[in-house]
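User: For documentation purposes, I need each entry recorded in a consistent format: the amino acid sequence on its own, followed directly by the corresponding structure tokens. There are two entries in this batch. Please keep commentary to a minimum and don't merge the entries.

Assistant: Recorded as requested. Entry 1:
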Amino acid sequence: MSTECSWYVLEMSTPLAAVRTSASRLASEGHDVLEYIPFEHVERSARLVLVGIAPGPTQLEIAYEVAAKLIRSGASNEEILREVKRRAGFGGSSMRPNLVRMLNHFDFGGIFNVTDGDAFWADDCRLLHCTSVVPHAAFRKDKMLAGSFTEVQGSPIFKECFLRDFVGSISELDPNARFVALGQPPVMRWTGASLMATSLPTVSSVRSLIHRPAAAARSMSISEPKVLTI
């Protein structure tokens, strides 16, 4: 299953018209479909790695819009992929501010010597790598995947994407990077298991922050992060 981008699909005047076409489809099986999203960039200098379950519809929309604009501006592939990840990774008017609020609550700015959580997507963006258990856009029965890791395991194409694109990218990261799993404990456990499988000797812990959907963002209560030593 190739993850090389068909760049022309992003050059349309309406970028979202390129989503869910034969050119953007990576794989399908039964009710499950995997669509390309330009999230291949790995920030090798990152000291903090945020891990979600899969990109959501807002991230997909932002990614295609940003990529299309940069392609038309003549930017290089490397510049496009880096900027798309910075702009679209956990992007959106609800998700990003909510995530920044959590990072600030737990003083990630102090831990990584940056001004605040916003800095990870601004001046200190080289310190952050955003990714997901399924890094590409996953659909089940025409709805974007927003379930558990058990659902990823139960789908051959989602599991393959997890092993190839998430687990396969870990060796490119700084072995001293700290991983934060956004979601329920199973995401944390499987993130930890993935790291163990890479035999990175200096990765010390995986922290889990409970991330809730945008609709619940305003009423979200913050709990202390759980730590899984590996």
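Entry 2:
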Amino acid sequence: MVHVLIGRRGAVSFLVWRECIFGILLLAMAWVDWRRRTIPNGLLLAGIINWAAWTYLLGRFDKETPCAVTVSAVIPSCVLILVLFLEKRKGCLMMGGGDVKLMFVMALYFDWYRLLQVVFTACVAALLFVVVSVWKGKGGKSGWERKDAGAEGMENDVDGIPLGPCFVIGFVWGIFQNEPLRQLFWKLMQRV
């Protein structure tokens, strides 16, 4: 996705700016999710507009773009189907709609393989949050309970964790899987 980071004069490429802006939007989404347990649609829309604007500016709208986005959208679609199946079976909310929408937005930025790594890393981070909160002695509760309006026929008490911060961890992992980004990171660290 990011082929060249440093241009002839040492300027950071447009693709890095695109991912940095999305990273800032993702941090804002994570903050709101942490505080209010919701991911605002406005920030999700800003992520889509950011991707579309930079993709257009780079002249990357071609025949391959819709195909690549469609292939990447298979992963959030599978997660959505799994979540809906588990919700129907268990009778309680398993994952918020904002988290699923966020995965669809992230499918714009990552190819399917990196998106799979991002989702896996986010799930591992969520599991670690749960393990740490249980280990701290909260009696098996994660400590992030909230009252939810809930879907029809679903329980209203939600005991879980906000996944937005976990997606930030996954995003950072996915971004640094690119060799050019790692090289830029190490160059910046050497200057410090």
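Summary note for entry 2:
Confidence is low (pLDDT under 50) at residues 1-11, 146-151, 153-158.
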